[in-house]
Amino acid sequence: MDYAVLKAVDLKVSRFALGTWGFSGSRNWGPNDEGESIGTIHLALDNGINFMDSAPKYNDGAAEIILGKAVKGRRDKVVIATKAYSDELDRKGMAKACEASLKRLGTDYIDLYQVHWPSRTIPFPETMEAFEKLKKAGKIRAIGVCNYGVECLEGAKGHAVATNQLPYSLVWRQVEDEIIPKSRAQGVSVWPYCPLAQGLLTGKFKTIEDVPPARRNVRFYSGAWKQGLHSDGGFEKEIFGFLPRLQAVADGAGLPMAALALAFLKGRPEVDSVLVGARSRRQLEENLKIFAAPVPPEVLAEAVRLSDELKPKMGKNPDLWQSENGGRFF
Ligand SMILES: NC(=O)c1ccc[n+]([C@@H]2O[C@H](COP(=O)([O-])OP(=O)(O)OC[C@H]3O[C@@H](n4cnc5c(N)ncnc54)[C@H](OP(=O)(O)O)[C@@H]3O)[C@@H](O)[C@H]2O)c1
Predict the structure, then answer these.
(1) Which residue of 7, 59, 107, 194 has the fewest CB atoms within a 10 Å radius of its CB?
(2) How far away, in angstroms, is 132 Cα from ligand 1 center?
(3) Among all residues, which ones are annotated catalytic?
(4) Percentage of the chain with pLDDT > 70?
(5) What is the distance between the alpha carbons of residues 219 and 239, in angstroms, rounded to a whole number?
């Protein structure tokens, strides 16, 4: 496993990070066997993955509990990242949320404590002060954010923000135009999430009918689906037009499609670590192999060329879930 040191803080993290949302048994993913989830986290640790992301929102803390159980006895080998939600970013709210996460994780410190989604009502100085207080008390080691746009990043200036988690993949590149340059300029590492577009970029979903119904809630898909969390048209035509072309490039090179998806992100200068989901040991094993596989530059260039054609058709809103008022990024 390769590692990187996050610029703003002295944290050495694996370039492949493991997401825990899929372990939580949430509505989005459906039930996951706890033994398999814990086994997957153990396999990650055995393969040198030390960077793991969770959140209280992942099925009411279920993912944090599983992560805590899995790292028991190996706590010092893991950089645990978890989050406070947009309504918990004031002094009192964040202190309370942090205590609850510590308890679920069964630890006395969180390595990277992040804003899950920004708040339009709680002032940035108050949020940053709440973080600094937790840091001083030894409850957290570093500050991170997620889904921070330009205005939010400006509001965090002057504080050592280690990471900005952003939805970023070959099919979802809205963050490239303004948010990534701003993150970079402030020394904030971009931490891409949904790098496989929730399974689309593994190539296993050939048509919309293949996508599990509960997952058709994001803006990849039409808001007309019963599960839709938004009201716009989605991008089914664009995405299912792009995927066979990407598959042909992958097939031509004898590589799985996911190898192109992960190579695209791990080669970016602003990315130190890619946050990948896997719901089983089998998927993690496969993804680790894929992550390590060399992708010839001309193959990656062809994949990026196709993605460049798709990008302008995908709109400017990076929010994967909401379209009202342009989404929740600001
Ligand atoms: N900060 C935020 O707002 C935010 C938002 C979203 C996610 N995240 C974080 O980012 C992490 C990663 O994102 P994600 O899990 O949503 O998306 P992802 O990494 O793009 O996709 C992961 C999903 O794809 C499928 N998959 C993975 N490897 C596979 C393989 N080898 N073969 C076939 N299918 C495979 C699995 O689902 P199935 O097997 O069920 O198809 C898996 O759960 C999350 O766990 C979470 O920690 C953060």
Answers:
(1) 7
(2) 30
(3) 58
(4) 100
(5) 11
